[in-house]
C-alpha cells in the first residue's frame, strides 16, 4: 500500500481569515464603494500580449459610453477597479453637464506605459473594445498617445481622438487644457471679482500633456506659476520652456497660493490635505479630485474655497473627440469649450443662491438631463 502512494503529493486547502474591513472585497464589483449602478464591467485578459484591462460602462441613457483609456501601474487590481468605476461615472456627468449625447465609460490597462505597452497589446485591447459593438467608444488618456488611438482604429471604428491626417480631431489635450483655463478664469472672477490671472499665484500639480498646455496658457496671461510632478526631467523641461518655478517643498497643499490646479491623478482633496489648503480657488484637469464628493465638497464650502467641479471644466477633451462623431470643425470645438466659462459662472452662482456645494449644483443639473432623457427614452419604447 505504501508503494502505491509513495509519489502522491497531498495538497491541503488553506483557509484565510478575512478582516471585517475587507469584507466588501468578497463582492469585488457590486460591493465596491465606487460601484454606482454601472451597467457593465468587462475584464479583458490576453496572455499572449500581457494585456490586463478593465472596461467600465456606467450609463448609456444619453448615448454610447465614451471615455479614454488609461494605462497605469496600479498597486493592485482593487485599485484599478476602483479607478475605472470612478472615472466612468465621472464621464457620464461630464457628458451630461456639457450637453453631449453621450454616456459615460472608461478603460484602464494595468501596466507601465513606458515599458509594457506594445503594438500587439494595443491591438488586442482594440479587439476587446470592438467586441462591445459600439456600447463603449474609447479615446486617449494617461499613458496613451494619438498614435495609440490610430493603431486601435485599425481593428475597430469605436475609437476617437485619432490623428487629423486620417480624419480625426487630433490630440484632445490642448482643448482639455483650454477648457480648464476657461473654468479657472470663471472661478477667479467669482472669487476675486476679476477673471484676469496676471500676477495670480497658481500651483499646477502634474505637468503631463494637459498640465503643460495649462502652464502655457497661464504664463501667457502673466500668472506666477509653480509646477510639481514626480518626473524631475519633465519638470526641468517645462521650467526651461515657460520660465516657471519648480516647487521644491514637500507639502504643496500648505503653501500660500491663489489657485491650486490638480492635473495629475484624483482624490488629492482628502481628509489629510483639505485642512491644510490655503488656496482661494481649486480648478484643475484631474478627474475625481474630491476623495469624497459630498463631504469634502461641503468642507471646501465651509472654508470659503471656490471649487470648480472637475467634470465640468475638464470637459474640453470630450468636446474635442465628440467632434469626430458629429462632424463639426475646430471653430465649433473652440466655441463649445469657451462656453465652459459661462457654465462655470452659472454653476458657482447657482451654488451660492441655493446654499449647496458647487459639486452638488453641477451634479444636479447633469442628473436632471439624464433623468429627462431616460423618461423620453421610456416613452419611445412604450409607443
Account of the 3D structure:
The chain is an alpha/beta fold and 383 residues long. It has 2 domains: 38-88 and 104-168, Rossmann fold, CATH 3.40.50.10860; 174-367, Rossmann fold, CATH 3.40.50. It contains 11 helices and 11 strands. It has helices at 77-98, 119-131, 146-153, 173-192, 209-220, 232-242, 293-303, 310-313, 316-326, 330-354, 358-382, and strands spanning 40-46, 51-59, 65-72, 103-110, 136-140, 201-205, 224-228, 245-246, 259-262, 281-282, 306-307. The strands form 2 sheets. A 6-stranded parallel β-sheet has the order 8-7-6-9-10-11, with helices on both faces. Strands 1-2-4-3-5 form a 5-stranded mixed β-sheet, with helices on both faces. The longest helix has 25 residues, at 330-354. It is globular, with a radius of gyration of 22 Å. The N and C termini lie far apart (76 Å). The model is unreliable at 1-15 (pLDDT under 50).
How would you summarize the topology of this molecule?
Layout: E1 40-46, E2 51-59, E3 65-72, H1 77-98, E4 103-110, H2 119-131, E5 136-140, H3 146-153, H4 173-192, E6 201-205, H5 209-220, E7 224-228, H6 232-242, E8 245-246, E9 259-262, E10 281-282, H7 293-303, E11 306-307, H8 310-313, H9 316-326, H10 330-354, H11 358-382
Parallel strand pairs: 3-4, 3-5, 6-7, 6-9, 7-8, 9-10, 10-11
Antiparallel strand pairs: 1-2, 2-4
Helix pairs in contact: 1-11, 2-3, 4-5, 4-9, 4-10, 9-10, 10-11
Amino acid at each position: 500500500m505504501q508503494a502505491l502512494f509513495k509519489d502522491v503529493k497531498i495538497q491541503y486547502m488553506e483557509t484565510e481569515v478575512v478582516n471585517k474591513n475587507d469584507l466588501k472585497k468578497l463582492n469585488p464589483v457590486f460591493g465596491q464603494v465606487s460601484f454606482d449602478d454601472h451597467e457593465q464591467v468587462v475584464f479583458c485578459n490576453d496572455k499572449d500580449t500581457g494585456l490586463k484591462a478593465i472596461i467600465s460602462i456606467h450609463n448609456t441613457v444619453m448615448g454610447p459610453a465614451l471615455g479614454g483609456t488609461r494605462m497605469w501601474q496600479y498597486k493592485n487590481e482593487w485599485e484599478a477597479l476602483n479607478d475605472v468605476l470612478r472615472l466612468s461615472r465621472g464621464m457620464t456627468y461630464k457628458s451630461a453637464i456639457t450637453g453631449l449625447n453621450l454616456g459615460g465609460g472608461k478603460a484602464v490597462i494595468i501596466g507601465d506605459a513606458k515599458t509594457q505597452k506594445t503594438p500587439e497589446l494595443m491591438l488586442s485591447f482594440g479587439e476587446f473594445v470592438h467586441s462591445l459593438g459600439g456600447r463603449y467608444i474609447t479615446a486617449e488618456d494617461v499613458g496613451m498617445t494619438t498614435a495609440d488611438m490610430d493603431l486601435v482604429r485599425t481593428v475597430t471604428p469605436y475609437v476617437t481622438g485619432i490623428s487629423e491626417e486620417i480624419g480625426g480631431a487630433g490630440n484632445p489635450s490642448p482643448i482639455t487644457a483650454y477648457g480648464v483655463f476657461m473654468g479657472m478664469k470663471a472661478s477667479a472672477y467669482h472669487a476675486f471679482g476679476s477673471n484676469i490671472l496676471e500676477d495670480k499665484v497658481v500651483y499646477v500639480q502634474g505637468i503631463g500633456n494637459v498640465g503643460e498646455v495649462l502652464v502655457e496658457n497661464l504664463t501667457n496671461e502673466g500668472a506666477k506659476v509653480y509646477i510639481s510632478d514626480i518626473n524631475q526631467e519633465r519638470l526641468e523641461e517645462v521650467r526651461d520652456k515657460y520660465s516657471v518655478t519648480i516647487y521644491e517643498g514637500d507639502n504643496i497643499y500648505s503653501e500660500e497660493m491663489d489657485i491650486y490646479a490638480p492635473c495629475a491623478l484624483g482624490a488629492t482633496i482628502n481628509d489629510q490635505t483639505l485642512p491644510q489648503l490655503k488656496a482661494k480657488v481649486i480648478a484643475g484637469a484631474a478627474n475625481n479630485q474630491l476623495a469624497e464628493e459630498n463631504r469634502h465638497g461641503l468642507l471646501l464650502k465651509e472654508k470659503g474655497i471656490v471649487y470648480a467641479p472637475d467634470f465640468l471644466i475638464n470637459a474640453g477633451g470630450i468636446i474635442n473627440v465628440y467632434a469626430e462623431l458629429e462632424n463639426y470643425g475646430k471653430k465649433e470645438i473652440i466655441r463649445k469649450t469657451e462656453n465652459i466659462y459661462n457654465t462655470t459662472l452659472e454653476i458657482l452662482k447657482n451654488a451660492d443662491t441655493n446654499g449647496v456645494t458647487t459639486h452638488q449644483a453641477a451634479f444636479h443639473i447633469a442628473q436632471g438631463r439624464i433623468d429627462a432623457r431616460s423618461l423620453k427614452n421610456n416613452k419611445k419604447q412604450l409607443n
